[in-house]
Design a protein that fits this description.
With about 350 residues, this protein is of the alpha/beta class. It has 12 helices and 9 strands. It has helices spanning about 15-20, 25-30, 40-50, 55-60, 70-75, 140-150, 170-180, 195-200, 205-215, 235-245, 265-275, 300-310, and strands at about 105, 110-115, 160, 190-195, 220-225, 250-255, 280-285, 320-325, 330-335. Strands 1-2-3-4-5-6-7-8-9 form a 9-stranded mixed β-sheet. Helix 7 packs parallel to helix 9. The longest helix is centred in the C-terminal third of the chain and has 14 residues, at about 300-310. The structure holds iron/sulfur cluster. Iron/sulfur cluster binds near residues 163 and 224.
Length: about 350
């Protein structure tokens, strides 16, 4: 049981909460009362990929518990500094599918827009830790170019907003983007991949709901939650608001060693998501990005976990276990050999 103290933030203003994040190793250590011997390695890891933790997420971490599954997702550690064969800076070879600044066109019917290089939280396992965001600016010139590109690609019917985190942009910018996409007749769907509602659920404010409710596009939101303890009553309210304006809610998680690599943890996550009206969509094997090898769970372990999940949950609460392989025309589903269960 986690003892809750008064929150370390006192506002529902998501932009304030975004700017008021923990951004240094020293402030993280002091806020969580962590043992000081971890600081030198953390400083080195922070130089590679900066610490960033918003306070609503920080408050869900149990002080004094080094095994806290939320802590492990944001804590810079010595293991990040080790080099391992096969763990690369661009594990998905995204730089080969990047026809214009801010645009990735990997799969036939959908394109991905890198709306921002910023995130509300820096997850230590992030496969875009080294993504060249500075070469992928998304200003009005780039958006005009992308609109032209989409006009000429009739096969694209879905636009995926990604990042960084696409919901760090203002509601005004989001509204303009949706207007632009609505003007292209063959675009019918927009999918928003975001971790913001998990780490700052206040992001789903009335203005955002209004913007989304006015769009002719089908809106899908894929929340990125890895653990049931990340989800709280504010998240529930946010999801309820989105459901009321017709947004389809899905979740994708990453299978992470020491964080959610147990049947109990995955069952809890699926059940908790469903309580909020969110369906589990994908469970990703870790993309082999340099610095994240300590989170890796082997494919055979993942398969065993999934087989056990099938015995615990109804089919609609079981995410699809997938891996992303560069140059493949879609994500690769991992065969579970269920007949052997
Ligand atoms: S929120 Fe997503 S893009 Fe941002 S650091 Fe975490 S995993 Fe990476």
């Amino acid at each position: 049981m986690i003892t809750r103290t008064a929150p370390s933030w006192h506002t529902e203003d998501w932009q304030f909460l975004l700017s008021d994040s923990i951004r240094t190793v020293e402030s993280l250590w002091s806020a969580l009362n962590l043992p000081s011997e971890g600081i030198p390695a953390a400083l080195s890891a922070h130089r590679e990929f900066q610490v960033r933790v918003p306070k609503p997420f920080l408050d869900k971490i149990e002080r004094g518990n080094p095994d806290d599954p939320l802590l492990k997702q944001i804590l810079p550690v010595a293991a990040e500094l080790e080099a391992h064969a096969g763990f690369l800076k661009d594990p998905l070879a995204e730089r080969t599918t990047n026809p214009a600044s801010g645009l990735l066109h990997k799969y036939k019917s959908r394109v991905l827009l890198v709306m921002s290089g910023a995130c509300a939280v820096n997850c230590r396992y992030c496969f875009r830790r080294y993504f060249p965001y500075s070469d992928n600016r998304m200003g009005s010139e780039e958006l005009d170019y992308i609109a032209g590109y989409l006009q000429h690609h009739n096969e694209v019917n879905e636009v995926i907003l990604s990042g960084g985190d696409p919901l760090v942009i203002s509601n005004g910018r989001l509204a303009k983007l949706l207007n632009l996409l609505e003007s292209i007749s063959h675009i019918s769907r927009v999918r928003i991949h975001t971790r913001l509602p998990v780490v700052i659920p206040q992001r789903i404010d009335a203005e955002l709901l209004d913007v989304v409710s006015r769009s002719r596009l089908n809106v899908v939101m894929v929340t990125h939650s890895n653990h049931a303890r990340e989800l709280d009553a504010v998240f529930d309210q946010a999801m309820l608001g989105l459901r009321k304006v017709g947004v389809t809610l899905l979740n994708q998680a990453v299978l992470l060693r020491g964080i959610n690599d147990s049947v109990a943890s995955l069952v809890d996550l699926s059940e908790r998501l469903f309580e909020s009206g969110v369906l589990p969509y994908y469970l990703h094997l870790l993309d082999p990005v340099a610095g994240a090898q300590h989170f890796d769970v082997s494919e055979s372990t993942a398969r065993t976990l999934m087989q056990q999940l099938h015995a615990e949950l109804p089919g609609f609460l079981i995410p699809r276990l997938v891996r992303e392989i560069p140059q493949k025309p879609s994500k690769t589903l991992i065969d579970l050999h269920l007949s052997e269960v």
